[in-house]
Amino acid sequence: MIFPRIISMMIGYACGCVLTAEIVTRRLTGKPCSELGTTGNPGMANVMAHLGFVPGIIVLAGDLAKTVVAVVVSMLIFHSEGHIIVFYAALGTTLGHNYPVWQRFHGGKGVATSCAGYFLYMPLQGLLSMIAGMLVVFATQYLGLGAVVIAFCYIPFAFVCGGTEAGAIAVILAVLMMLKHFPAVRDIFTGKAEKVNVLGAIREKLQKR
Question: How would you label 57-74 residue by residue, b for 16+ Cβ within 10 Å and e otherwise?
Answer without folding.
Answer: ebbbebbbebbbbbbebb
